[in-house]
Amino acid sequence: MLRQLSKNLGLRIQLILTLLVLLTAIPIGLLWYHSSEQVRLQTIERLYHHSSETIYHQLDSFFSEARDVYQHQKKIAADLPTIVQDRDKLIVYLSNVLNHHFTIDYFYFANNEGGLLSLGHDWDKHFTRLESENGGAGPLTSYQTLHNGRGGVATATTEHFDARTREWYQRALTSNKPIWSDLYPGAIDQNQLGITLSKALRDENNQIVGVWGLDITLTSVVNELIKAKPSENSTVALVNEAGQILASSNPLHSPQQGQLINVSSSQSHALGKLWPLIKQHDNQNHNTANNNARSLETTQPFTFQGHPWVSYYTEYPLGPKRNMRIVLYSPLSDLTPGFLQAKHYAIIITMLMIALATYYGSLGTRYILTPIRQLTKIAEEISQGKWDKKITVDRDDEVGQLEKSFNKMTTHIESTIRQLDQQQQETKRLNTLLEEQNLQLEERVRARTEELSIANRQLRELAYIDPLTGIANRRHFWEQFELSTKDTDGWLLILDIDNFKQLNDHFGHVTGDLALQHFAKSCQSCLADGDYIGRIGGEEFAIWSEGRNAEQVRQLTDQIFESLEKSPLTVQDTSIVITTSIGATRCGPGKLSCYAIADRMLYKAKRTGKNKAVIDTQFHSENLVQ
Fold first, then answer.
1. In angstroms, rounded to a whole number, what is the distance separating the alpha carbons of residues 518 and 507?
2. CATH numeric code, 229-335
3. One of 131, 297, 315, 539 is an active-site residue; which one?
4. Might you give the EC number(s) for this enzyme (predicted)?
């Protein structure tokens, strides 16, 4: 029987195909079925790990940016005692830091008499100033103010506030380095919780002048947690070691009357069921002397209200021996419904494929081998001298072509050669046509590339040009300014249109827009090659001028004043003479606070009558990086 099997090619092909399908499909199906649960948990773990990494890095970004502010203070340490004694200088410094560090919600200074001066903003960029009325402990008022901390309308007041009694103030006095506080309610809004990085300010005699504070509110953290949710019904929470929910994407976990929700509360939802499992896992890891916070991360399935859930948690260090846990959990049905359905479908499809492969393998073997057997029989008869034997042609596929070629092999060699020659000519023609099509395609690609280049230039202009005035916007101007001051001396001019609000109120916003356009064109007409102008605020503009001395800068400001005076804005037969106040300072490599100095000069110009320029001619060498 084995000898007959070795001579039967059809049976061998059919048997080999069947065995190959069985050996391939059955192990794959069994492996998929038995490992599906493990694969599913690994998939969920990778999804949660990615979300956890996102939160981890975002927290690092929040906290590191706060530390960077205090790192920068080392460079201007000699000026800080003077700055905190002058309210205007302190507001300028607070607003400058706040406008360059967007993850910080509040920046403030509390003096050693209990007074507080604070500047902050929310996610909609509404700025708030908190200020003690008498400069010491006493009434504290909240003002809605501009981005620079100036002006404002009182929105709330607390009868008595003493910064010295606050936990962040007391912590700062115990260390010479910045130190994180515990979560605490806000001075005005008790439901707004935040965490503070505070640092004591000391004079040259090591006496306490006051305490700096940087706040990150839970609103900022919660917005990032909501973005990191792996599914619609998932919850992402930060929990301290005492089981208090510091921040959560679930609104049920929000603080109530300035108090954090505990995991044992009825409002904690599924987290209350999960928390004992987390504590048990932490104890097991600490018993094995494994103190690496990232090694404590794990995926933990659990049941809540009769439904399967899955969770993932890890630790984030706030400081020495101070950690909080990042906890993510979701209903299992949110994450893997399609996976379970695909598993069952895969098993069914595997069995169906085995049956189909066996059936069509048998048909295919018979279809292939039948004409081969016929060719073998006729060839054997011809070899025996039966020249009149011909192969019966009954197929048009590849095997049929072989049969025809066998019959006509000796009589159609010449015809075959001619056909080959014709095929060669056709190939040349097709190659020529293909080259022409390639040239056309290359021309289309070149045209399309040029269109994309033009579109990219237009997009870049939209990103860097102020659409109203046609000059550089705030972002593009400061990028150019940063590049210019790296290795070149020059001047920074801050210009603010005088009485612009009254112009808007009297003539309307359309006239106000025309005034901004007219002002930008008038200033541009006065600039030399290499100078550039940008709109950095509503009616505030900035100019960078390179290679001038103080007298030349004075001439530039006089040209601007003259241009505005001689070319008034004409609206409906009404001539409007636009005036401006200018503050200027010299800038160079290593000089810090150029904007703050120029803004201070602008403030002097405004305060002393407007329509004038105040130029700071000192280089301020004490601000250079050593």
1. 15
2. 3.30.450
3. 539
4. 2.7.7.65
